[in-house]
Amino acid sequence: xxxxxxxxxxxxxxxxxxxxxxxxxxxxxxxxxxxxxxxxxxxxxxxxxxxxxxxxxxxxxxxxxxxxxxxxxxxxxxxxxxxxxxxxxxxxxxxxxxxxxxxxxxxxxxxxxxxxxxxxxxxxxxxxxxxxxxxxxxxxxxxxxxxxxxxxxxxxxxxxxxxxxxxxxxxxxxxxxxxxxxxxxxxxxxxxxxxxxxxxxxxxxxxxxxxxxxxxxxxxxxxxxxxxxxxxxxxxxxxxxxxxxxxxxxxxxxxxxxxxxxxxxxxxxxxxxxxxxxxxxxxxxxxxxxxxxxxxxxxxxxxxxxxxxxxxxxxxxxxxxxxxxxxxxxxxxxxxxxxxxxxx
Length: 344
What we know:
Layout: E1 2-10, H1 19-27, E2 33-41, E3 50-54, H2 57-60, H3 67-84, E4 91-95, H4 99-110, E5 114-118, H5 126-134, E6 137-140, E7 153-155, E8 177-181, H6 190-197, E9 205-209, H7 215-223, E10 229-232, H8 239-243, E11 248-250, H9 260-267, E12 271-273, H10 285-291, H11 298-309, H12 313-330, H13 333-343
């Protein structure tokens, strides 16, 4: 099977989208040939059966074009590539951006190319529904995703490379340590963690990784003086070392999407505290009260952190093993690769 993949960015050093570089490496083990069309590229090192084609955003940064002009260039390049390479792929996998299905769906239908869309956002609209109709299958990971209700939708593994994300054999975790990784953005609710820390009468080591710009960042950093350290962005492939240094990982995103960082942290042996209700079906019943806090509730989060810190080392290790097993069995990248290969 020869596969065309449409995605946003190919850059192993990207803190948010760098994971897709490893996805491609694993996919290349099952697919004969992969052509990737992306909006922009950075650094990548991929197998010989993968061809990368950029729509040109990286070069536009140095060119003085109006925004409308750049969009025309992107669309022109998109149609040029999908037409020129039409005899070199059998199916299309669009990752996250429904716009590409809307642009190319009718042409791919005429060319007899099967189209598959991966979309996992809680919100959607008529264009999402049209993209779903143009796709043979729509993939999602969260039961709260907008596309989960489609008749042709299918829930998929999150896709964690457990050959990279795993507990370190040696090295102790920092005692009473808490980690957060992700965009420092209102939708990520980092302020809830800061408010919870104010309620805990205990010295904690709290490290927050993510983009460090904007009014929201300035506001919560001011509130977090002496409570947390803001560490900036980090490439995805460097995060296993960070996960392995911490005892507790906190994710504050509300139910809807399903952040990959939670599963990466679990795979590395972190005790993951979340508010996402998707985990009511992921965590064993005995861990739900311990690891899931009420959305937007700093007091409940503070209590969860305190309770976890008070557990014995043996109990913490028991929970770690359960969480690692969940990722390996249900959400590994190898499982995602094999499931996709079986469907596409």
